[in-house]
C-alpha cells in the first residue's frame, strides 16, 4: 500500500480542502505512476480532471511525466506532491478546427459579397479566382488533417490559448488577407492587373502548380509523421522518406512554399505579413523539434538542416 499527500501549488477553488491524502492499497512506489495519482485525485475532485492537473514534486515547479513512477522520481511511501490547476482544457483537435474555420468563413464572405465590405461591386480577376480557390483548399486540407491525420503527444491545452492561437489565422490569414486579395485593387479591370504578369494565365497556372505540389507534399509529410505514432500513444521515432532526408521539418518548408506562391502572385502586403509571421513561428517550432530529436536520439539522428534544405 502507498499513501500520497497532495497539496496545492497555488490556491484553487476546485479543491479548497487541500492537502489531501490518497491511498493506493494495490500499488507500490515502483508501480504507482503520476497518471494513477491524477486519476485518483480526479475521482476525489471530479472538476479537477487529469488533463487540468500539473503534478510536481513539493517545492519544485517541474512537470512530472504521466508515465513516471514514484520510485523513478525519488519518492517513497508518505511523500508529498503538489498540484497546480492548468485551467479549463480543450483538445488539440478542437483547437485546430477553431483556428482554421476562421478563414473558411471570412474569405467566402468577402469574395462573394464585395459590396458589403468595399461599398462597390468587384468583377473578380483570374488572379482573385485562383487565390480564392487556393486559400479555401488550403484551409479545407488543414481541417481534414486536424480531424483525420494528426496525432498529438499532448491531448489538451488551456482553453484561454485558443484566442491567442486563432489571431494569426482569423485576423491575419482571414480578415487582413481576404480584404486585400478581393479588393478592387485586384479586380479584373484594375490597372494593377490589366496588361501585367498577374493577368497572364500561364503565370497564374504555373504558380498554382507549384502551390499544388507544396500542398500535396505537406500532406504527405503529415501522413509520414502520423504513421510513426500508433493511435493513443506518445511514441516518437525518427522520420525518414520524402522531405525528411534533408530537413527535420519539411512540413513547415512546404507550408512556406505554398504561401510564398500566394505572395508572389498577388504582391499583397497582407499576404507577405501573414507569411513572415507564420515563418517566424514555424522556425521557433522547428528549432525546438530539431533539438528534441537530437537530444532523444543522439548520434542515431541523421545530420539534417532544420527547416530550409541546404540553408538552415
UniProtKB/TrEMBL annotation:
The top EC class, named as a word, is oxidoreductase
**UniProt keyword annotations, A-Z:** Endoplasmic reticulum, Fatty acid biosynthesis, Fatty acid metabolism, Lipid biosynthesis, Lipid metabolism, Membrane, NADP, Oxidoreductase, Transmembrane, Transmembrane helix
What GO cellular component entries does it have?
endoplasmic reticulum membrane
E.C. no: 1.3.1.93
What are the subcellular locations of this protein? Endoplasmic reticulum membrane
Q: How does it sit in the membrane?
A: Multi-pass membrane protein
| Keyword Repressor attached | no
Q: Name one GO molecular function term.
A: very-long-chain enoyl-CoA reductase activity
> Which stretch is the leader sequence?
none
Where does the sequence pass through the membrane?
A: 256-285
Q: In which pathway does it act?
A: Lipid metabolism; fatty acid biosynthesis
Q: Using the record's annotation, list all stretches that form the 3-oxo-5-alpha-steroid 4-dehydrogenase C-terminal domain.
A: 156-312
Highest taxon of the lineage? Eukaryota
- Domain TECR-like N-terminal, first and last residues per copy: 23-81
Q: Which family does it belong to?
A: Belongs to the steroid 5-alpha reductase family.
Q: What is the name attached to this protein's record?
A: very-long-chain enoyl-CoA reductase
* Top-level taxonomy: Eukaryota, Fungi, Dikarya, Basidiomycota, Agaricomycotina
Amino acid at each position: 500500500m502507498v499513501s500520497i499527500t497532495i497539496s496545492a501549488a497555488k490556491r484553487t477553488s476546485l479543491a479548497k480542502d487541500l492537502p489531501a491524502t490518497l491511498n493506493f492499497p494495490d500499488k507500490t512506489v515502483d508501480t504507482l505512476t503520476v497518471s494513477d495519482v491524477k486519476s485518483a485525485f480526479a475521482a476525489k475532485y471530479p472538476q479537477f480532471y487529469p488533463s487540468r492537473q500539473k503534478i510536481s514534486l513539493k517545492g519544485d515547479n517541474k512537470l512530472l511525466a504521466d508515465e513516471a513512477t514514484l520510485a523513478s522520481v525519488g519518492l517513497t511511501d508518505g511523500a508529498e506532491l503538489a498540484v497546480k490547476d492548468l485551467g479549463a482544457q480543450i483538445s488539440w483537435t478542437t483547437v485546430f478546427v477553431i483556428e482554421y474555420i476562421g478563414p473558411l468563413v471570412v474569405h467566402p464572405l468577402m469574395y462573394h459579397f464585395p459590396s458589403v465590405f468595399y461599398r462597390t461591386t468587384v468583377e473578380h480577376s483570374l488572379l482573385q479566382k485562383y487565390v480564392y480557390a487556393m486559400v479555401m483548399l488550403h484551409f479545407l486540407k488543414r481541417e481534414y488533417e486536424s480531424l483525420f491525420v494528426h496525432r498529438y503527444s499532448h491531448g489538451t491545452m488551456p482553453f484561454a490559448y485558443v484566442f491567442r492561437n486563432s489571431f494569426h489565422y482569423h485576423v491575419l490569414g482571414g480578415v487582413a488577407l481576404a480584404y486585400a486579395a478581393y479588393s478592387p485593387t485586384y479586380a479584373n479591370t484594375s490597372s494593377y492587373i490589366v496588361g501585367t504578369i498577374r493577368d497572364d494565365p500561364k503565370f497564374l497556372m504555373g504558380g498554382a502548380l507549384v502551390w499544388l505540389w507544396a500542398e500535396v507534399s505537406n500532406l504527405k509529410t503529415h501522413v509520414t509523421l502520423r504513421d510513426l505514432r500508433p493511435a493513443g500513444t506518445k511514441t516518437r521515432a525518427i522520420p525518414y522518406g520524402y522531405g525528411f532526408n534533408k530537413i527535420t521539418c519539411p512540413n513547415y518548408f512546404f507550408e512556406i512554399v505554398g504561401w510564398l506562391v500566394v505572395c508572389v502572385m498577388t504582391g499583397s502586403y497582407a499576404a507577405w505579413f501573414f507569411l513572415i509571421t507564420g515563418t517566424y513561428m514555424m522556425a521557433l517550432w522547428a528549432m525546438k523539434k530539431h533539438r528534441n530529436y537530437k537530444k532523444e536520439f543522439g548520434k542515431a539522428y541523421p545530420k539534417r538542416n532544420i527547416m530550409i534544405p541546404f540553408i538552415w
